[in-house]
Write a structure and sequence with these properties.
alpha+beta, 3 helices, 3-stranded antiparallel beta sheet, 100 residues
């Protein structure tokens, strides 16, 4: 069962309660529609090419991902954050190609 607890139209974030009836476990999660952000990231990456210099924008993250990375301590560790950004699984958040 899925029940939306609240939704913020400004951020697009919904807090949802999932109840797994097979084992009785409930999960409270934040969800965010990211289609527009990912489309914008792809367009910016295509325009930027592979070369970038100091202070170039390299990624845009949805707030839910940002908060998750912050909670895990990844945002506070520049090496860990660069590894996360360079991971092919996270390429859709990149606005610039290349290796950090």
């Amino acid at each position: 069962m899925r029940k939306v607890i609240d939704h913020d139209p400004n951020t697009g974030i919904s807090h949802v309660l999932y109840h797994d009836e097979s084992d009785g476990v409930a999960h409270y999660v934040a969800e965010q529609a990211v289609d527009t952000l990912l489309d914008t990231n792809r367009k910016q990456a295509n325009e930027a090419g592979k070369r970038f210099g100091e202070w170039a924008k390299v990624a845009s993250l949805p707030l839910t991902i940002f908060h998750d990375l912050k909670a895990k301590g990844i945002l506070d560790d520049s090496k860990a954050f660069k590894r996360w950004l360079n991971d092919p699984d996270n390429k859709y958040f990149r606005t610039h190609e290349g290796h950090l």
